[in-house]
Amino acid sequence: MIIRRKTRQIRLGDLLIGGGAPISVQSMTNTDTADTEKTAEQIHRLEAAGCEIIRVAVADLDGARALRLIREAIAIPLIADIHFDWRLAVAAMEHGAQGIRINPGNLGGPDNLRKVVDAAAQHQVPIRVGVNSGSIEKDLLERHGYPTADNPQALIESAVRNVQLVEGFGYHEMKVSIKSADVLTTINAYRALSEMLDYPLHLGVTEAGGLIGGTVKSSVALGILLSEGIGDTFRISLTRDPVEEVRVAYELLRSLKIRERGPELISCPTCGRTGIDLFGLAREVEDYIQTMKSPLKVAVMGCVVNGPGEAREADIGVAGGRGKGIIFKKGEIVKRVPENELLAVFMDELKTMEAERLKDQDQDQNNQSA
Question: With respect to CATH, is domain 264-369 assigned 3.90.78.10?
């Protein structure tokens, strides 16, 4: 059982972070924020995938002014990502940002930081103090050297310093992130920081890479930290469609038995017995179950002979042979189908099972409230 680290709690829009609240999943848009239609469209796709917090880059005043329309079009909290220009941070909050991400040390001095903190207090906007290996102050680099797994001290001290700058203006609605592109540096830095601060921690590996490399690096670093009870919210950073970030995030949470959202896919890695296009079948099924809500176990197997037995724990599964296939539930065959009809019939079975599960869940909720 994972025992969560105790942190203070902050509110981001209607979402609670830290203090025992569920670990939340974040992502970031890659659209031009000033293009409100495209940005909102991408956020809607992310919402459908389960994204709970969205961050957008605010590079200019047009981007800041666009936040009001974007916020009105979406259902999840909106964070403005700010670098260097304190005026953009203030403008973002004036135009509806529900959270801001800043590095307090690069806003041009304490007077500028005070203006940002005053605006955050006025608009009741929490601040994410975000520090990464590429934005550490020169004096800390000279004292400690570039952060490594064996010596992440510059990264840690930068975060603590910047938190104290915000605290110095009497503001405590913060969460903190200290990201590195290196897995072990990220792990060791967050471990140390979690012993020093009680603010909620946002986890991430910065510049993690593409789908495979980024997924592996993020899953190792964040999986270890989450398993130790460290982390209150996180983002899987991928050079990919941000929807993939959310999908990976929930698979990570599921693997640690922290949270479940939608079905789990079980599929075999294929072998010489595979007689159908299992890769294509698995891809079609995986894409479809992303739209489902019930935590079913769905199996896609390549062998009619061994498939049902190997995936006996699955609620429902499909296995193919040469020219034919089967559909099974809890290891028992319920239908035999020609290969050219297999996907369509299986999708119908999935829809039926989803509807039945949701109906049962609604009934259970009604009984509990009666």
Answer: no
